[in-house]
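Worked example

This section walks through a single chain of length 340. The input is the sequence exactly as stored; nothing has been trimmed or padded.
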Amino acid sequence: MAAEYSQIIKDISNNSYAPVYFLQGEEAFFIDNIIDKIENNALDESQKSFNQVVLYGKDTSLADVIGIARKYPMMGERQVVIVKEAQEIREWTKEDKQSLVINYLQNPLSSTILVFGYKYKTVDKRTKFGKAIEKNSVFLNAKKLYDNQVPDWIRNYVASKGVNMHDGAIMMLSENIGNNLQRLANEIEKLLLNVKEGQQIDAAMVQKYVGISKDYNIFEMQKALGSMNKLKAHKIADYFASNPSNNPMVLTIYSLFSYFSKLLLIHHSDNKNEKAIASVIGVNPFFVKEYLQAARNYPLGKVVQNIKFLHEADMQSKGIGFATKKEGPVLTELVYKLMN
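Given that input, the structure is written out below as tokens.
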């Protein structure tokens, strides 16, 4: 059956396991995290050497997987069989191998926990095989988060660790790192190491421990662009150009595209109430005034033109359809075009 990531994690935390998990999709963080939870918690350390088997798709076959899954545990109540990189198994489209899997799914061994980590791909749920997998396993389709979902994910992730995070710190982390959940989790763990009991994570801590410059970051660039502060925007662009390893062009363009896409949503929204706009563009109401001011500074036609400029800069930086330029001059020219 289809399941939510949070419910799967909750069940595992309560020591409640299903016979079969099929974890597929683009967001590897969700898949890897569930697998790690099962791998680390389903069995005691004393049991793992006997009853935990970790296989890798490129080195195994479906017959081997099912054969191992059908074995009984040694001196224990259950065994765990984990197939990492399961998408690398070459037999998924062979009917006889599909039948082997379907037969097991319909009558799984109750003492086995079988986990497939099928990353970056999906099975076709319209097929007999896909329907059988979805019906007879804990089935997760791990999708990438949209940009407007990232702040809430950060807030919930931090809260799950028993810590609070200031809205400004959440937005700074979100805007500078984007929807790379594994990197976000790594940076948050770094922050948690430096949080004292009862302390709230604020923007200053993000700047210090994540390594984001206080004045020269994508969050500040967006604020400068939104308020039409040309001098500050160009200073930040120059800083990015002189520190390309810490400020990759692709991430800068991605963040600015997300920013102007939010302005586009504002222009197309009939309800300009701050609470309604916060919901439409997926930001905390605290920041809505800045976005509304930016929407006034950038009429609909200019927003559409700027999205075109961002696409052209992305192509130019990659040498696609344009003479290849270094990232610095491309960014400097882009910032000029965006504000003029």
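What to look for: The first helix runs from residue 5 to 13.
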